[in-house]
Specification:
InterPro entries: Cro/C1-type_HTH, Lambda_DNA-bd_dom_sf. The protein is of the alpha+beta class and about 130 residues long. The protein contains six helices and four strands.
């Protein structure tokens, strides 16, 4: 359950407060985490789809015509695949490109939180 602390004008997780798990306030000097890159999000989607189909890296890499090392790097978000490579991997997984894009958008927006804005009520912002 979520409530609002009127003194600090912030959103509070009431269940966490009751359980004694109150998060520490973020220090202004603490850097915010870097936003995830698109290649990381797409890599996660492709890896999850491959695993859901119980297929190995080697199996999908052979179907695409690339090395399994390169496919592994794409799935881990370390390589920036071209649109042609993404299309080929999606085809090997029988995953429409539209689904890859839609799942990527959902993952990128899943970590959004509410916060109180002075004088404006509550606004949605990225975590």
């Amino acid at each position: 359950m979520v409530g609002m602390d009127p003194k600090q004008r912030t959103i509070v997780d009431l269940a966490a407060v009751r359980a004694g798990r109150v998060p520490r306030p973020r220090d202004a000097r603490t850097p915010k985490p870097e936003p995830r890159l698109l290649r990381q999000v797409y890599g996660e989607v492709l890896r999850d789809e491959r695993r859901d189909q119980d297929r190995s890296l080697d199996d999908v890499a052979r179907a695409v015509g690339m090395s399994k090392q390169y496919l592994s790097e794409v799935e881990r978000g370390r390589k920036e695949p071209s649109s042609e490579i993404l299309r080929s991997v999606c085809a090997a997984l029988d995953l429409p490109m539209e689904q890859l894009l839609a799942r990527g958008i959902r993952r990128m927006t899943a970590h959004r939180t509410l916060r109180a804005a002075p004088g404006r009520g509550i606004e949605l912002c990225a975590a």
